[in-house]
Structure formats: structure tokens, C-alpha cells
Design a protein that fits this description.
Elements (H helix, E strand, L loop, with lengths): L10 E6 L8 E4 L13 H4 L5 E5 L14 H19 L3 E6 L1 H10 L5 E7 L15 H10 L3 H13 L3 H8 L4 H6 L3 H8 L7 H4 L6 E6 L4 H13 L3 E6 L6 H4 L1 H13 L3
Parallel strand pairs: 2-3, 2-4, 4-5, 5-6, 6-7
Antiparallel strand pairs: 1-3
Length: 269
Amino acid sequence: MDAGAGAGRANEGGAFSAAADRPPAVLVHGATADHTTFRALAPVLGRSRGLHAIDRRGRGASGDGPTYSIEREYEDVAAVADAIAAASGGPVDVLGHSYGGRTALGAALRTDAIRRVVAYEGAPLPPGSSYRPAGLLEAVHAALARGDKDQALSTFLRGIVGMSDEALARYRADPVWPKRVAAAETIVREVEAETSEPASLEALAAVAVPVLLILGSASRSPFGQGTDALAARLAHAEVAVIEGAAHAAHHTHVPEFAAAVTAFLDRRP
């Protein structure tokens, strides 16, 4: 399903049908990814509910626009939620990974069609803190300027995600690596946008629907700082920690990830 005909709209990259008595869920991927990032999680989570995995703007079959802001991303996800809610006859849930989690939270401020939000390590940091090591953005810029998208992506994954050389070598062997390299141009705009006012702790603390914030115990410390800071400010927030997981728990700890999401989404008000 296309959320709209114009450039920059989010295209649904994959749909999974399941139990009709539960609200459908929209899956929103993180930086450099597309809907296929949920290829391990979706078959498990999709046993209990219908899923709609989207490609954010500039990925897959989705368009893009001449200018970028994270607010356009919020609007895209809200438009998808509105369309699915209209088709299904009720509100939807939204699950986002990393930057997709930030986008899911922002979308909940722009539509009443979102019932609950799950965000995996997508929380903003308090003022004065940063996810990015010193010099990272400049290094990504420099790699892109010389046409080395592979290096740009590697720099991002090491610096922000905290991926080790060993983990990076495994990722390079994955068939999706060329797609991730192709999307490297989007890294800079998203790293810059995450520090904008609409993506801030103050702005997203206004989300009123129930939110589950999931954190990997082995992730870099800023992810925990952001999770704790946002949880303390939200009206209805829960935190779940997946032991031993880092930033890619939707690949490495699928049963635990799916169990946490299912328990939260299935809980009665």
C-alpha cells in the first residue's frame, strides 16, 4: 500500500497476515535499512497479528523529496497508520527500530490512528549528550565526498551502532550489505535530523499513547541514557531490557524481542 502518490511517501514493503482480532502493526526501519531489516522478526511476530513493514522515504519503492526533515518522516508514518486504520476499522500499533523508533514516536503526535508505540533504542538524548563520537559526521561526509559509500556506512556502524570489526565482517557477508551501502547517502541527513527540535526529548515526551521502550543490555551507554530519560518523561511508558543484546536485537534475539513486543501489545488497557 502506498501512503500517497507524491514523492517522499512511505511505501509498504511487505505485509504479513495473521490473527484478525488484534490491531495490525506497522514496522518502521532504522538508518540505512529498509523493510527487509525485519526479515527475521516479522515471521515470528506475524504469527499473532497482521504486519505492514514500510520503506521509509528514499528506500525501496518509496519516493523522496527535494528537502528533508524528520517531520516529513513523522507525517509519512502517520499517513500509513491512517490508511491502515481506515482499512482495518480501528487503530494500529507502530514498532520502530532505532531512527525508526524516533519516527514512530513522532508519528504518534500527528494522528489518532496509533494505539501503542514500541521503540527499540530510538529515544532522544538529554541536552548536552550525543550518540555520535567526535569527528564521526565529518568522517562520513568525507567518505561520501570521495564516493566511498562502503566506508561511510562502516564508519557509521562502528561509531554510532558500536559494531565491532568481527560483527562488521559478518554483516559485509550478508546479502543485504549492498542495499545498505546504496542507502549510505541518507546517513548524514538522519544523523543531523536527530538533533533537531522536533526529534528532541522535550518534543517526543508529549506522546500520550502507551509506549514500550526496549533496550539491549550490551548496547552503547547512550542508548540506555536516552531510554531512561524518555521513560521518565512520558505519560505511559514501560522499559524492557533484552539481556545480551546490542543494537540489532531484532536479528540476534528474535524470540526475546517478539515476546516483549507481544506482551505489551496484547495487554489490555
